[in-house]
Amino acid sequence: MPRLAYVDGQIIPLASASVPVEDRGLQFADSVYEVCAVLNGRLLDWPLHLARLGRNLGELSIAAPMADAALSLVAKRLIAANRVTEALLYIQVSRGTAKRDHGFPSARAPTLVMTVRPFDFAQRVAQQSKGVAVISVADQRWGRCDIKTTGLLANVLAKQEARDAGAFEAWLVRDDGTVTEGGSTNTWIVDAGTIVTHPQSPHILPGVMRAAVIEAAVAAGIPLVERPFSLDEARGANEAFITSTTVPVLPVIRIDGHAIGGGKPGSIAALLAKAIWNRIATQTGYRP
Ligand code: PDD
After folding, report:
1. pTM to 2 decimals?
2. What is the largest CA-CA distance in the chain?
3. Is the pLDDT score of 251 beyond 90?
């Protein structure tokens, strides 16, 4: 079964799907994107992804390619056409195609592209019980990391540095020593029973999984504060973990080779992981 993609109005084989050379997403990273989990054929937290996409388009004055209801229909059609049950839906909206010129083109015709890639969520269960290593890397990104743009070069370089070091993720550290987030995840520590994560600000992406984990922590009555924490603080924390659409609560057991929580996943991360699997089961019926 060949994979299928959606490109500006048509569902076509992924292998032949393309955008014009002068698409502004290609030339300027003048585009935003979303990655949504598909579990049991159903979209997880879809309204939250739609809301974030809408906000990001608004922040950049990119016209919405279609109404939310139509976008939902196209997404569901593409998932069904690909005949996958566990997958990642990728949505990208660029400002469109125009003669290369930095300022916005006068015509407002955004380009909408979607792909669906099979993804094994169940692999995370074993990783959750083992934990992963991360390294720290200087945060070299721009000042609006709250907008989910495809301008990801600094993230790409940081994640490759982590991969080269045999680590799962790069934790991005600002000049003042604070950890903002991971290359493609939000970052968390547990300090004396309190969960700490960077507050929503232009320095981090407001993760959909981050919102879900905050909800789970509040529901479980675990104290939580949203404040910046330093790399030193993280090294001394009882627990650390990362979250994203593709990584629903993954314990971090090493930062730059330094063991966290005795080098073993902690109980609060385990509790939150369970809560997120329950959230997934409630919304989609999927259990790993
Ligand atoms: N990345 N921070 C960054 C920089 C991210 O790229 C992501 C997600 C997150 C977590 O956001 P969410 O919980 O909404 O997935 C935080 C996606 C998965 C990606 O680029 O592939």
Report:
1. 0.97
2. 58
3. yes
Region 75-103: what's the mean pLDDT? 97
Cβ–ligand 1 distance for 210 under 6 Å, the answer yes
Q: Are residues 254 and 147 located together in one domain of the fold?
A: yes
Nearest atom, ligand 1, residue 155 CA: 4
Tell me the mean pLDDT in the region 267-275. 98
Q: Walk across the sheet containing 111-118 and list its strands.
A: 10-13, 4-7, 111-118, 87-94, 31-39, 42-43
Q: Which domain does 174 fall in, by range?
A: 124-284
Residue 257, domain CATH: 3.20.10.10
Rounded Cα distance, 198 and 225, in Å? 9
Residue 107 has pLDDT above 90, yes or no: no
How far is the centre of ligand 1, averaged over its atoms, from the C-alpha of 24 (Å)? Answer: 22
Of all protein residues, whose CA lies closest to atom 5 belonging to ligand 1? 184
Q: Please check the confidence at residue 8 and state whether its pLDDT lies above 90.
A: no
Would the pLDDT of 273 be above 80? Answer: yes
Mean pLDDT over all residues of the chain?
97
Cα(201) to centroid of ligand 1, in Å? 15
Beta-strand relationship, 111-118 and 87-94: antiparallel
Answer whether 92 contacts ligand 1 (Cβ < 6 A): no
Single residue among 69, 99, 119 that ends a domain in this structure: 119
Q: Which of 115, 149, 245 has the most ligand 1 atoms within 8 A of CB, as the residue to mutate?
A: 245
Residues 128 and 115 in one domain: no
- Same domain for 62 and 147? no
Residues acting as catalytic residues: 148
| Residue 103 and residue 65 share a domain | yes
Whether the CB-CB separation of 94 and 24 falls below 8 Å is answered with yes
